[in-house]
C-alpha cells in the first residue's frame, strides 16, 4: 500500500515537468505491458505496436472532436480502445498462423501503411500537421486547467495534476488485468505456446486461437496507451507513430524483462524518461548539445538512444531476464546473506547437548 499512497501524493509536491514525465511513463508502461503479453509471454514478435498506438490516439481524437461524431470523451476512449482491438482482430489471422521474424516483418508493414494513411486522410487526421486533442471530461469535471482554479489542500490542480490520477487509474486497471491473465489458464497456455508449440498442442491448447487472442489483447493495450499519450501531448502528429516508436517499445520489454508486468513497467519508465531528462539537463551533462542544436555534441534524443541501445546489448549478454530478473536475484542474495548471520550477530546461543556417541556409559553394579 505504500507505493500507491506515494504515487497519489506526488502531485502535491512535484511541478508540471515531473508530472508530465510521469504521464508519458504511465502511457508507455501500459503499451509495454501489452507488448510483453504478446512477445514475452506468447513468444510472438511484433514491430507494429506504433500502428495500434496511432489507432487509439487518432480514434479518440476523431470520435470526441470536430469534425467527427463529437461523442462524450469517456465513450470515445472506450470506443478508441475497441477500435484498436478491432484492427488487431483484422490482422489476427496472420498473427495466428505466422510466427517469429516473419510476423515481425508482417507487422512492420502495418507501421508504414499506417503512416501513409495518417498523412493521406487529412480530413480525419489533420494530415502532416496533426490535430488537437479534445480534453477528457467526466460530467462537469474536465481534466484541464479551468477557471475557477481548483485547489486541493492548498495546491492548485491544473491539467497535469488531474491527468495524473486518470493515468494512475488506467494503469492500475491494466496492471490488474495483465496479472490476472498471466496467473490464469490463458497465461499458462500462452507460456506453453512460447516454450513448445508441439507440446502445447498435445496438451489441448488451440495454437492459432490463443495467438490471435494475444495479438488482439496487445492491440487493445496499445490503443489505451495511445489515448493517454494523446491526452498528455494535447496534439497528435503522424511522425510520432513511426518505426522508431515500435523499436522503443521492444527496447522497453527487453530491458525490463520479457514476460514480466513489473519488468515492462520498469523498462518503459527507463526508455521514456531518459531522453526527457537528458534534454532537461543537457547544459550540465558532457558531450551533449542543447535541445534543438547540434553544436557541442550529440542531441539529447540521439544520446539517449545510444544509451538504451547499449543497455539492450548489456541485458542480452549479462542479464537475459532484464531488470526484473536482476532485482529478483538481488532479493534472493540479500535473503541468503541475512540467513547466514554469524553467531556474534545473533547473540550467545544455548549450549548444545552432547551427542549420543560422545556420552559415557555409566558403570553397572
TrEMBL record:
Keyword presence, Transmembrane helix: yes
Basic residues composition-biased segments: 332-341
Transmembrane regions listed in the UniProt entry: 17-38, 45-63, 75-94, 101-124, 163-182, 213-237, 249-277
Entry's localization field: Cell membrane
Protein origin, superkingdom: Bacteria
One of the Pfam families matching this protein, by short name: BPD_transp_2
Keywords associated with the record: Cell membrane, Membrane, Transmembrane, Transmembrane helix
Principal location listed in the UniProt entry: membrane
InterPro entries: ABC_transp_permease, LivM-like
Membrane topology term: Multi-pass membrane protein
Region (Disordered): 332-365
Name by which UniProt lists this protein: Branched-chain amino acid ABC transporter permease
Organism the protein comes from: Streptomyces griseoaurantiacus
Amino acid at each position: 500500500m505504500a507505493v500507491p499512497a506515494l504515487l497519489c501524493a506526488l502531485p502535491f509536491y512535484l511541478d508540471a515537468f515531473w508530472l508530465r514525465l510521469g504521464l508519458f511513463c504511465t502511457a508507455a508502461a501500459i503499451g509495454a505491458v501489452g507488448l510483453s503479453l504478446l512477445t514475452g509471454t506468447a513468444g510472438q514478435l511484433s514491430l507494429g505496436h506504433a500502428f495500434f498506438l496511432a489507432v487509439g490516439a487518432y480514434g479518440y481524437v476523431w470520435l470526441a472532436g470536430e469534425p467527427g461524431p463529437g461523442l462524450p470523451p469517456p465513450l470515445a476512449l472506450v470506443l478508441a480502445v475497441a477500435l484498436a482491438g478491432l484492427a488487431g482482430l483484422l490482422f489476427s489471422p496472420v498473427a495466428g498462423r505466422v510466427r517469429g521474424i516473419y510476423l515481425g516483418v508482417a507487422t512492420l508493414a502495418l507501421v508504414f501503411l499506417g503512416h501513409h494513411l495518417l498523412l493521406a486522410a487529412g480530413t480525419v487526421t489533420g494530415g502532416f500537421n496533426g490535430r488537437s486533442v479534445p480534453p477528457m471530461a467526466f460530467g462537469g469535471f474536465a481534466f484541464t486547467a479551468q477557471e475557477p482554479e481548483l485547489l486541493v489542500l492548498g495546491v492548485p490542480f491544473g491539467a497535469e495534476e488531474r491527468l495524473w490520477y486518470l493515468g494512475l487509474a488506467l494503469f492500475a486497471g491494466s496492471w490488474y488485468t495483465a496479472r490476472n491473465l498471466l496467473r490464469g489458464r490463458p497465461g499458462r497456455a500462452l507460456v506453453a505456446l512460447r516454450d513448445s508449440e508441439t507440446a502445447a498442442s498435445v496438451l489441448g491448447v488451440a495454437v492459432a486461437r490463443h495467438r490471435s487472442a494475444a495479438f488482439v489483447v496487445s492491440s487493445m493495450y496499445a490503443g489505451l496507451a495511445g489515448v493517454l499519450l494523446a491526452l498528455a501531448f494535447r496534439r497528435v502528429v503522424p511522425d510520432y507513430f513511426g518505426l522508431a516508436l515500435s523499436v522503443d517499445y521492444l527496447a522497453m520489454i527487453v530491458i525490463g524483462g520479457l514476460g514480466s508486468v513489473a519488468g515492462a513497467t520498469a523498462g518503459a519508465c527507463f526508455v521514456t524518461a531518459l531522453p526527457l531528462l537528458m534534454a532537461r539537463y543537457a547544459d550540465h551533462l558532457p558531450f551533449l548539445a542543447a535541445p534543438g542544436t547540434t553544436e557541442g555534441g550529440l542531441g539529447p534524443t540521439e544520446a539517449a538512444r545510444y544509451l538504451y541501445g547499449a543497455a539492450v546489448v548489456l541485458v542480452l549478454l549479462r542479464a537475459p531476464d532484464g531488470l526484473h530478473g536482476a532485482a529478483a536475484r538481488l532479493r534472493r542474495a540479500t535473503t541468503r546473506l541475512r540467513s547466514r548471520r554469524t553467531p556474534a550477530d545473533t547473540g550467545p546461543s544455548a549450549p548444545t547437548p552432547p551427542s549420543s556417541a560422545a556420552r559415557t556409559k555409566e558403570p553397572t553394579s
